[in-house]
TrEMBL record:
Cellular component aspect of the GO annotation: plasma membrane
Organism this protein belongs to: Candidatus Electrothrix marina
All residue ranges annotated as the Protein translocase subunit SecDF P1 domain in the record: 227-285
Residue spans crossing the bilayer: 82-101
PANTHER family associated with the record: PROTEIN TRANSLOCASE SUBUNIT SECD, PROTEIN-EXPORT MEMBRANE PROTEIN SEC
Protein name: Protein-export membrane protein SecD
Any Pfam family matching the protein: SecD_1st
A single GO BP: protein transport
Amino acid sequence: MPARHERVNTGVRPLNYNYYKVIVFAAAVGIIHELPLSYTGKHTDLPLQQIELQIKSIRSSTLNIIRLLGKTSMNTNLKLKIGLLFTLILFSAMTIVPSFYKDSPEWWKKYLAPQGLKLGLDLQGGVHMVLRVDLDKAVANSLGLSAQDLKKGLAKKNISAVQLDSPDPAQVVFTLPNTGVLGEINEIIKENFQDLDIDVQSEAGTFPRITLKLTQDKIDFVRQNAVDQSLEIIRNRVDQFGVGDPVIVRQGEDEIVVQLPGIKDHERAKDLIKSTAQLEFKLVSQQSVNLQELVDQAKAAGQWREGGDAEQLKQLNLGLQASLPKGTEIAFQLIVDEQNPKKENK
């Protein structure tokens, strides 16, 4: 008769370690994932000795687990995997300690967690603003500067040009004394104002008129540059404000998104942005006074500093009112564009 094999039920099922690997891994991922959510953004005042005791406790527990794994009947590969998993958990815990305890050793902060946990608006709140840059005004300001320069150039040629009110801010209209000066005006514009398009209207019995517009290439450049300058100014202002990890990005053609995590005073944040987001272009007389000398004197007297806000600029002009030509004031423009790769204040 063939041999008969009987299955004996001992009542003990073999241990399936795959289940335990999944459970341990899921628990570790969950703990690491939830740690940032438990962080409030504030350090605790626990002394360094207590921190070291907690770390020693974690290390001791990990070593005990490793020793326990060595005594079990699991295969070597599984032991290595679980040991590596617990080592990863321990290392992860060590890297977040500086985020919780301000008295962590400097070498710990430098090599294990140089930046710590950084929370955004979703975890610690703050200010979220969407700003719109007035691109049409930027174009109108640029056109106004060119038109004024042209008018001064014509005056040097003894050509009288009277600027008229225009319903379109993207146009500047001048009346001329006669049609005989049109040829000379065209030459001046062609030589010195290549960014201007000119349209001549001349009818019998009326003074001739010229309508000036910026070329499309110039308009595109001004619109792009206006947003870039606004971004740069806002970033510099927020840096002075001391906000940690702000988000300042361009959105679409003319919008700037500003996120200031941790800021509770919304009105102060709005005042901060409003004081620098507006770009204005103003003419400054440099014929009768040395502007740089006046500014240097104001700096020495503590009346002005580089990157000052709109209120300081207003005070500077009030202080120098007696030294400036009547109807003029000092203005600064931050130049950051393709034509001027270096940052400079003018």
